Amino acid sequence: MKEDWKPGTMIYPLPAVLVSCGSTEEEYNIITVAWAGTICTNPPMCYISVRPERHSYPILKRNMEFVINLTTRDMAFATDWCGVRSGRDYNKFQEMKLTPGKAKMVSAPIIEESPLCIECRVKEIISLGSHDMFIADVVNVKADDKYLNKEEQIIWFRGDNAAFSGMNGIEQNDKLDKLEAKFGEWYNRSQYEVIWEVIRQFTSQKGDTVYVNRLNELKETVYTNHLSGKDSCGDAGIDDVCALFDKVGQTNYYLELYKAHAEAMDNMCEQKIKIAEVFYHAIQFELTMPGTLLSSNASLSTNNIMVWKIDGLRLLTGNYVLTAESRVINYWAFGLTLLIILATLGIFIKLYRNR
Fold it and tell me: Exposed site from 19, 109, 114, 307, fewest CB < 10 Å?
C-alpha cells in the first residue's frame, strides 16, 4: 500500500562533486555540490544548483565559469569537509592539500587530484527558489591519462575505426594490447576493492577493531605487492585475498573469518561485483550479409553492416538478433534467363534438324 508524502527531492543517490571557481588565486574556492547533472548531449551541457547565500555564489555569477571535478575514494574526506566549511573562513585548497591547476578553456582552476575535470562556461542562470541553477556549456574535459586518454576513449566508448587510421596491423594490435592492460588493471582493482570492503564489513561486525585497523594499514601493500599488474587478480576469490592479508599481517584471522562466514561473504561479494562484471566486456561485432536486412537490434547499422556494442556508455542487454534474407530472388531476371535458354536450345535443335 502506498502513502502520500509531501513534495520533496527524493531522487537518490546523487553524485557529490567538487566545483572549483574563481579567476585568480586569491579568489579560488571549492564548493561541494550534489545538485549537478547532465542536461544535453549535443551540444554537451550540464548544470549545478547553488544557494545564493553561499560564498561561491557571487564568484560563480561574476566569472560565469566553473569546473566540475569528479571525486575518488581518496578524496572523500575533502569532499565532505568542503561541503561543511565556508570559503569565507578557509582556503580550501590549502586546508585539504588539493592542488589548483590550469584549465584549458576557463579561468577557474581544475583540481589536479581529480580524475576528471569538466570545464564549464555559464550560459544562463535560472532562479528557482532555494537554489539558482547555473546552466553551462561543457567547453573542455581534462582526464587523467592513467585511466584512458582521448584516443583510447574513442576506441573504447565509440568503437571508432578512425582511431586506427594510418596504422598497420602490428601497430593496431599494440594499441589494443595497451588499452586492454589499462582496463585489466582497473577491473582487477575494482574486484579487489569489493572483496576488501566485504572482509572489512564482516570484521567490523565482529567488533575486532585491531584487525579492522590492520586491514586499513595493509590494504595498499597487499594489492601493490601481490595483485597489481597480475592477469589472475580478477580471478582471486575472498579466500585468496584473506590468505594474503594473513600472510602479510602474520595472522590466521582473516581466512578463519572467511571459513566461518563463507556463504554470506560470497553472496555479498557477488552482489557488489555485478556492476564491475557489466563493464568487463566491450564487444563489437560486424556482420556483412548479401541480401536484404529485415530487422536487427544492433545499436548501429550502415549499409547493412551491423555493429553490436556493450560498453561503458551503451549497454545492450539480451540476445543479439538479426533477421535477413540471404538472397532476393529476381523473378523477372529468372524468367528472362529461362526464355533465353529455351530460345537458344530451340535454335540449336532447329539447326541440327536442318543438317
Answer: 307
Write out pLDDT tens, residues 83-101.
Answer: 989 999 999 999 999 999 9
Q: What are 69's strand-pairing partners?
A: 18, 117
Contact 99, 142 (CB under 8 A): no
According to DSSP, the residues that pair with 117 across neighbouring strands are: 69, 142
Residue 23 one-letter amino acid: S
Residue 185 has pLDDT above 80, yes or no: no
Cell of 209: 577493531
148 band by pLDDT with thresholds 50, 70 and 90? low
At residue 18, the pLDDT reads 95
Spatial neighbors of 317 by CB under 8 A, at least 6 apart, are none
* CA nearest to 251, candidates 201, 188, 191, 203: 203
Environment class of 286 (CB within 10 Å of its CB; exposed 0-12, middle 13-18, buried 19+):
middle
Rounded CA-CA distance 237/243 in Å is: 10
When pLDDT is cut at 50, 70 and 90, the band that residue 312 belongs to is very low
Name the one residue in this structure whose C-alpha cell is 589494443: 176
Looking at residue 278, its pLDDT comes to 45
Are the C-beta atoms of residues 142 and 149 closer than 8 Å to each other? Answer: no
All three cell numbers of 89: 573562513
Residue 167 C-alpha cell reads as 596504422
CB 74 within 8 A of CB 31: no
Q: Give residue 189's identity as a one-letter amino acid code.
A: R
